[in-house]
Amino acid sequence: GGVFLKVIPQYLSIFNAQPTEAEREVWDQVDVVLKDAKGILDELQAYKGAGQEIREAIQNPNDEALQEQAWAAVVPLVGKLKKFYEFSQRLEAALHSLLGALTSETYDDTTQHLEREQALAKQFAEILHFTLRFDELKMTNPAIQNDFSYYRRTLSRMRINNVPAEGENEVNNELANRISLFYADATPMLKTLSDGTTKFVSENKNLPIENTTDCLSTMASVCKVMLETPEYRSRFTSEDTVSFCLRVMVGVIILYDYVHPVGAFAKSSKIDMKGCIKVLKEQPPNSVEGLLNALRYTTKHLNDESTNKTIKSMLQ
């Protein structure tokens, strides 16, 4: 752990790191995606759903006007849901590029990568921050799945009755299945990134898996130390920085747990899970409930026999 403390002051500069020439190409690719992330979160936060219209249509099945109203309310919402889903695919591609850069054999070890590619490390952190924020908002919005399943039911009824559905070309059956599966997950964006990281590792068999897991565990340690050390914590200019660090810490733990053969909770894990959970528990409960849930429900190895009992009880 000593090595991290030495580099932490440099990591504080990560928040305004500018890309070097070597990083520029990947940085530009990812930047385009991150520029759209804020708008996606705003749209998701404003997503109200068509619950009212759907209820009335279902309660009065013979009232054509109400059926049309519900359909008219749902179609644009499905357009949004499709857009969020498509964004998850772009985000996964961006993550792929970043992992490629941050785990390449250019430098001897992870610490060097993260020191010399701070701008990319920051983008990686921003992707995780977006991902956990997206999933927090999605978890608290049951309308999303209701709207989508109403849309699918209505659409298949229209097909049976040969009613031309306008905008039907927007979501064909295969895409609808994929979108459905995406939103069925408690934390869909994290699932996308976890799958993407797993895929990255399996596609790069020649790359030592440690290159990826060390990158993740180093970021987890950095966030934890920054959060638990008053001297660093006091330098955080805003609560936003705190929540940024918390989300990134949880995000890298989950990815590590997916990619590492024995996961984040095992004795041999390079992540101090007790320390990380302790940091989470020290925050105001309402601000971290979503993150604790992500650790409870999105990790792969928490319920393994080998997981330390203390860790399990800390997450009860």
UniProtKB/TrEMBL annotation:
Tell me if Membrane is a UniProt keyword of this record: yes
Protein family (similarity comment): Belongs to the CYRI family.
Q: What keywords would UniProt list here?
A: Lipoprotein, Membrane
Q: A Gene Ontology molecular-function term?
A: small GTPase binding
- Record organism: Myripristis murdjan (pinecone soldierfish)
What's the main place this protein lives? Answer: membrane
Bilayer topology reads:
Lipid-anchor
**Location of this chain's protein in the cell:** Membrane
Q: What is this protein called?
A: Family with sequence similarity 49 member Bb
| Top-rank lineage group of the source organism | Eukaryota
Which InterPro entries does the entry link to? CYRI, CYRIA/CYRIB_Rac1-bd
Q: What processes does the entry annotate via GO biological process terms?
A: regulation of actin filament polymerization
Q: Provide the CYRIA/CYRIB Rac1 binding domain boundaries.
A: 12-312
